[in-house]
Amino acid sequence: MWTTKTFLTKTKRGNIIKIVREHYLRDDLLCGSAACNTCPHKDDEFVLDGKPNSICTLYAYPHYLILDTNVVLHQIDVLEEDALSNVIILQTVLEEVKHQNTAIYQRLLEIIANKKRKFYSFVNEHHKDTYIERNPGEKQNDRNDRAIRKAAVWYETHLSINSVVGQFPKIVLLTDDENNRKIAQEEGIVCCSIKDYVENVTGFIGLVDKLSKNVAPEACSKDALYPAHLTPAQIHEGIRGEGTAVVNGFEKPILLQGHSGINRAVDGDSIAVEIFPEEEWRRPMDIVLEDKADDDPGDQLEEEAVLLKNTKPVQQGDDEITPTGRVVGIIRRKWRQYCGILMRSKFPGATRHLFVPAEKRIPRVRIETRQSDVLANQRILVALDSWPRNSDKNAENEVILLEHDVPHARFSEAVLACLPPDDWTIPEEEIKKRVDLRSECICSVDPPGCTDIDDALHAKALPGKTEDGLKRFEVGVHIADVTHFVRPNTALDKEAANRSTTVYLVGRRIDMVPDLLSSNLCSLRGGEERLAFSCVWEVDENANILHTKFHKSVIKSAAAMTYEEAQIAIDDKSRNDAIVSSLRILNTLAKKLNRKRLDNGALSLSSPEIRFQMDSETHDPVEVQAKKILDTNSMVEEFMLLANISVAQRLAAEFPQCALLRRHPAPPPANFHTFLKAAKQQGFDLDVSTNKAFSKSLDSAVIPGRPFFNTLLRIMATRCMQQAQYFSSGSKTVEEYYHYGLACPIYTHFTSPIRRYADVIVHRLLAASIGCDVTHATLLDTKVANSVCDNLNYRHRQAQYAGRASVTMNTHILFNKRVEVELASVLAVKRNAVHVLIPKYGLEGPLYLPSDKFTYNEEEHIQTCGDVVLKTFDELTVRLSLDSSNLQHRKLVFELVKPHIPGFSVDVMEVEDTKKETEKDQKKRKEETPAKSASKKSKKK
Predict the structure, then answer these.
(1) Residue 254 has what pLDDT?
(2) 7, 105, 348, 578: which one has the fewest Cβ atoms less than 10 Å from its Cβ?
(3) Is the dihedral of CA 739, 743, 747, 749 positive or negative?
(4) Is residue 489 classed exposed, middle or buried when 0-12, 13-18 and 19+ CB atoms within 10 A define those classes?
(5) Do the two domains 219-335+384-403 and 815-906 of this chain adopt the same fold?
(6) How far apart are the first and last CA of the chain?
(7) 382 sits in which H/E element
(8) pLDDT on residue 218
(9) DSSP strand pairing (471-480 vs 529-540)
(10) Residue 627's pLDDT is what?
(11) 906, 895 contact by CB (below 8 A)
(12) Sign of the dihedral defined by the CA atoms of residues 461, 466, 471, 477, in that order
């Protein structure tokens, strides 16, 4: 039988012609399977085994593989290995590969021609049962995906009916297209990604290392640091008509400036280049770059050909000028295999490393391998997978995570298998086991954009009064019941224990538990029923605790609010609804709890926290500001602290040898030496003999007219502290339980089990203490408890460092080509610099001082230049910019504006010009760029 294909095309002269082609369909095409007893195969036409052995643990039964086009295009290195066999290559795929990449097409033909590999080419486009027409308006890619799924269904049906063996081979479709997988599963097709399949193949060491980490094109539209390449049509039009040209026609090489100028081109590529106007041309740099053997390896691309700082602007009549431009498109890639060495990660067991090519013109490449021990001492060959637009920012984030040993791989299939279904709802029998609090007016208060909501609160007045005639209130803290889903010793539990904490980078979150739990089933979202672990107090109007109880509960949050929304509701006198009433009670009691803690010796310290405003399209930072603290921040914090203290007291009583607690050692006197000397220079003798005396001293250290001084003092006091630590109660004396900063004898973490594994352990212990769950051996094992605490402390510390590194990276992105003039405060005076903090942004860094102008007094920690004396806490005016001369270590540069020191301070006229340019640039950016905020969740101690 036959069908016709009709399509329109345009001639060179612009005429439209109609073309009709006949397309013949047959019913005698062979399936190629030895399991089939219907197709008239000859003996040498059986390519596919009748009962193929499965090498993948995901599918224990015999099966054939069908691949989609992208799997072939991006994973040809895997296909060339002997591991995969009994593979069906459809004509649809073969033709697409031929159209897109002739080199890979030839490699695929060689695999098919090798009879030992058992790759069978099936002509689905000419089989009457597998050919499909393209629907009106349907994209060619979507039609081809549909054709591949049609062939997969046909094979499954054909073999089930016509098999000569008892258990006929099934079909597994390999595709990395998530939407295609979803549709395939709906059509009853077994499918998975090539990554999942290969990672579960047994008996072939090193196969996983062959996987390409290629990023789908649609994933590159966000977080893109590089400009998008022009399409082939745009490149052709630009070269032909507008003078956007390749280098041909220029006597001198075109200077490509910076990452964006090179725009992912690699030596040997054929490229299209946009030439900049002549006023932007430059003289070549007149220095020789030093090749340092001890360069600190990063995952940044090396721009050894171009250092912007050393190129010089054009001068009138300068005959050394060089044309400049930028790559706007790749006409033809010249990628090949590159020889080099493996630079291993410094972390034991890491799988992600850097490949350093022998050719310096080739950038360093991030690769994954489990054979680093073997490869480290050898010269190896590496082929490039891809270079997407967002790779540098992703690479920098990757480097941050790797440098701080943050586990961030995708959750394994074993972990995901522990999760409930997406549509899980609370079973009725589970509700019957719990205290039903769905009728209570409970609400959550969190930072904007928070999706992992792990705590909610409620408060209400109780009838009657205390014996002293005081009003009575019920206050509840309700925490996500993560342990209902994360059961001990499961793959999910082991993964959470290893990660230990959720890591918050700017604009990105590395979850401790999968998203289904962290942002859905465990998150206490407004209007949805959720399982919780509740701590409920009866208190009097002076915030004295009269009674405490703990129970597993089911709640339904009435509202999920931001701190600002809650503050507005509290302040709105026209509102008197149940939510506002609850918030006002909480706020009033929180202030009394706070006063009690401070009177008891708790320290109210500070740290410069910042919030980035992010571009809604690129997710790059467009503005930064110091974080605002509202009463509602303190309100939530006070009740989280109270819950943590109450739970700690219960656990220590029930499990004196294995309770997981958190301590904060008092800082040694030596930590305060420089700090006290600096405070004395400002006229304050601070008493640090006890935390209570220290707290009182900080409260009284105020300078009229300098409201930021006291905050600065508390920031510096924070840096005198030691790190708080998790510990097992049996490993310390009771006196060592003390938490210096909070001035409480015992403390733990109970309120954030979505993002801290310490809280998961605490929930299990508390549940056992109230008879809601059973204990298990490892929970009571002191040796295991100590090991868990060691990992918790390590991961917690590394997460903090990673978060700070992410802030630094985004600050560098923000201040690229941006200069600000701002007020700064001196945090410390060093031998060659003063360390300054800009309150407006919460940014800090060194302002270097030349030794030929300044004299350093080591005893008093002051710097002197003539009449100018610089000491800790002084206020300065500085100019802030970014130094990108060292691409591996970009840094903020602080330059002195005031006080003015001739020959050193930045010129006043230059500052005024900077202000005008900056204001103009900021105004333009605000007009053009919609923004949204991004910050890490940081409301609990």
Answers:
(1) 76
(2) 348
(3) negative
(4) exposed
(5) yes
(6) 75
(7) strand 379-383
(8) 39
(9) antiparallel
(10) 75
(11) yes
(12) negative
- The position carrying tokens 């002293």 is 468
- The architecture that CATH gives domain 219-335+384-403 is Beta Barrel (2.40)
pLDDT of residue 913: 66
Q: Which two tokens stand for residue 664?
A: 């904060």
For the chain, helix (H) and strand (E) counts, in that order, are: 25, 38
Of the candidates 635, 547, 628, 548, the residue with the CA atom closest to the CA atom of residue 588: 635
Residue ranges per structural domain of the chain: 2-212, 219-335+384-403, 413-665+722-806, 669-718, 815-906
Q: What is the pLDDT of residue 657?
A: 92
Q: Which residues of 698-725 are buried (b: 16+ CB within 10 A; e: fewer)?
A: beebeeeeeeebbbbbbbbbeebbeebb
Q: What is the pLDDT of residue 104?
A: 87
260 near 226, Cβ under 8 Å?
yes
Q: Which helix (H) or strand (E) holds 215?
A: none
| Tokens describing residue 364 | 């360093």
Structure tokens at 850: 């030349």
Looking at domain 2-212, does it have CATH number 3.40.50.1010?
yes
The Cα–Cα gap between 641 and 651 comes to 15
Collect all residues with Cβ–Cβ distance below 8 Å to 602 and sequence separation of at least 6: 691, 695, 741, 742, 743, 744
What the block records as the tokens of 722 is 């030691």
Chunk the chain into consecutive blocks of 10 residues (it has 941) and report each block's average pLDDT, rounded to whole numbers.
58 61 78 87 80 91 94 91 93 91 87 92 92 88 94 93 77 93 93 92 84 54 58 60 45 67 75 79 49 36 33 51 79 75 75 76 74 79 68 72 85 92 94 96 91 95 92 97 95 95 91 95 95 97 96 96 94 93 96 93 81 66 77 94 97 94 93 90 92 92 89 90 94 95 96 97 96 86 92 94 87 83 91 89 88 90 92 92 73 91 82 63 53 43 46
Nearest residue to 149 via CA among 108, 193, 186, 123? 186
Indicate the fold that domain 815-906 takes in CATH: OB fold (Dihydrolipoamide Acetyltransferase, E2P) (2.40.50)
Burial of 52 (0-12, 13-18, 19+ CB in 10 A): buried
Residue whose entry in the numeric block shows the structure tokens 């499909």: 132
Query: In this predicted structure, what is the pLDDT of residue 615?
Result: 66
Q: Is the dihedral of CA 430, 436, 439, 442 positive or negative?
A: negative
Neighbour-count burial for 547-572, b at 16+ CB within 10 Å, e otherwise: ebebebbbbbbbbbbbbebbbebbee
- Residue 127 bridge partners (DSSP): 26
Cis peptide before 899 (omega within 30 of 0): yes
Strand partners, 9: 17
Task: Give the residue among 583, 578, 446 at the shortest CA–CA distance from 523.
Answer: 446
Residue owning tokens 């597993």: 552
pTM confidence score: 0.63
